[in-house]
């Protein structure tokens, strides 16, 4: 009996380092990640980015809430691994290069595949917030920024046909 107890205790002690090395759930408390202003070179107007989590070895994607004041939008850009956009508040627009601008509203989920040139932002008179989950490539990049969206593109005026109608 005594030998059995010693054997069991020895097995338990041997296995403790393995238990301690196991990954553990973690909580990143609200308010522990500072908000940042959307950089002027990548946004037209005022935007606030509230980071949620960075890409890691376990999950190769990052997430953030982005809030656009009325009339604010991103520059044209491309994601090397794609992006999911979930509109949580307000009304906005998104547009894929060469296609019509589309209105987006709370509950809409937009999948933007890798390599697709696009922009997104708030409507002219309404702020808009969305949650973005963005993939990251092997070099750690999640976006390639391009030129700014013109006022005509933002307003959908570049989509007018010869009759002057807009989609």
UniProtKB/TrEMBL annotation:
Keywords: Signal. Residues 1-20 form the signal peptide. CDD domains: cupin_HNL-like (cd02233). Residues 65-132 form the Cupin type-2 domain. It holds the Pfam family Cupin_2. This is Quercetin dioxygenase-like cupin family protein.
């Amino acid at each position: 009996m005594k030998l059995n107890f010693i054997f069991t205790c020895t097995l338990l002690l041997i296995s403790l380092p393995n238990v301690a090395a196991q990954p553990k759930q973690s909580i990143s408390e609200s308010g522990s990640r500072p908000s940042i202003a959307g950089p002027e070179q990548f946004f037209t107007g005022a935007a606030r980015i509230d980071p949620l989590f960075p890409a890691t070895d376990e999950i190769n994607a990052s997430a953030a809430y982005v809030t656009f004041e009325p009339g604010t939008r991103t520059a044209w850009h491309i994601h090397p691994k794609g992006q999911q956009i979930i509109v949580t508040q307000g009304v906005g627009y998104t547009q894929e290069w060469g296609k019509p601008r589309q209105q987006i509203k709370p509950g809409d989920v937009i999948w933007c595949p890798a390599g697709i040139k696009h922009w997104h932002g708030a409507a002219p008179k309404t702020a808009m917030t969305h949650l973005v989950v963005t993939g990251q490539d092997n070099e750690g990049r999640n976006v390639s920024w391009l030129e700014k969206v013109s006022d005509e593109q933002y307003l959908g005026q570049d989509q007018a046909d010869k009759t002057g109608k807009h989609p």
